[in-house]
Amino acid sequence: MNILDKIVAYKREEVEKAKSLKSIAELEQLPLFEEPSFSLKRFLLDEKKTGIIAEFKRKSPSKGIINDKVKVSQITRAYASNGASGLSILTDEPSFGGSIDDMITARFNDVPILRKEFIIDEYQIVEAKAYGADVILLIAAILTPEQVHDFTLKAHELGLEVILEIHDDSELGHIQQRTDIVGVNNRNLKTFEVDIEQSIRLSHHIPENKIKISESGINSVQDILNLKSAGYNGFLIGENFMKQEDPGLAFMKFTSDLRDALV
Ligand SMILES: O=P(O)(O)OC[C@@H](O)[C@@H](O)c1c[nH]c2ccccc12
User: Residue 189: what pLDDT?
Assistant: First the structure.
C-alpha cells in the first residue's frame, strides 16, 4: 500500500467517526456555515496580491517534522497581511499534524482559506464550510470523475470554490466545465518525487479558460517567474516558508523579492 492508499483508508474511518459525533444537520447550524465566502479566483487575479497561496503545515509524510513550534494565528496573520492570495490550512492530523481547529483559528483573516484535506465524502465538504473554508481541494488521484462532478456541485451549492488537483496527463480527464481552478501538484503523492517541470509540461494541456495554479516544491522567485511565463496564476507554497524559524518573516522577504523582480 502506498501512502495515499493508507491516508484514504484512515480517512474513511475518520469520516465515519465524525458523522457519528455530529450530523450534517448539526454542521449546518454552526455560525460560520452562514457566512459569505471569499473567492480565491478573485484573489488570484487581483494585481495587488502576490498569487501565492501560503500554506500552514507542521509536518508531512515526505519531510517529517517541518516546524512544530509556530502558531497558526501568528503565521497566517503575517501571510495574509503581506499579500497572500490565499491560505492553505492542512486539517489532516495523522500525516500533517493539522486540525479543523487550525482552520477555525485562521478564519479571522479576510483572505480565502483552502481546506487542505483528502476529501472522499460529501460530509467533509459540509464540514469545510461549517468550519470556515472558502475553497476545497479535490485530488484526482483518489477520486473518480463522477465523484469530482458530484463533489464540485455540492461545494458550489455551499458557496465554496474547488481546486482540482492533478499530477499527470492521465488525470486531465478529471477536469470539468465547472472546475474553478486546476492545480498541478509537482509532487507525486505516491512516490514523493518533486519536479516543477511537471507544471510546465502540463500547462499546455489544461483548458485555456481555467485558472491554473502550481503546487509543491516552489522555492524561489525564479520558480515563480518561470511558472508565470507558462501561464500560471497561482503558486501553492508550504515548506519553503514553514521550514524557517519565522515563516511569516520568510514570507515577507520572499514577497518583497518577488515584487522587486516584477517591476
Ligand atoms: O511544501 P510544498 O512543497 O511547498 O508544498 C505545498 C503543497 O503543495 C503540498 O503541501 C500539497 C499539495 N497537494 C497536497 C495534497 C495533500 C497534502 C499536501 C499537499
Answer: 87
pLDDT at 190: 85
Its domain, for residue 197, covers 3-262
pLDDT tens string 205-255: 999 999 999 999 999 999 999 999 999 999 999 999 999 999 999 999 999
Which residues have a catalytic role annotated?
55, 57, 116, 165, 185, 215-216
CB 185 less than 6 A from any atom of ligand 1:
yes
- Is any atom of ligand 1 closer than 6 Å to the C-beta of 247? no
Residue-level pLDDT at 191: 87
Q: How far is the CA of 194 from the centre of ligand 1 (A)?
A: 10
Q: What is the pLDDT of residue 32?
A: 97
**183 has which bridge partners?**
165, 213
Q: How many domains does the chain fold into?
A: 1
**DSSP category for residue 252:** H
What are the Cα distances from residue 166, in Å, to 96, 121, 127, 205? Answer: 20, 18, 23, 12
CATH number (domain holding residue 213): 3.20.20.70
DSSP track, 78-113 = HHHHTT-SEEEEE--STTT---HHHHHHHTTSSS-E
Q: Which pLDDT value is given to residue 76? A: 98
Ligand 1 pocket, 258 CB below 6 A? no
With H, G, I as helix, E, B as strand and everything else as coil, classify residue 150: helix
Q: In this structure, which residue's CA is closest to atom 18 in ligand 1?
A: 116
Residues of the chain under the 50 pLDDT cut: none
Atom of ligand 1 nearest to the CA of 66: 1
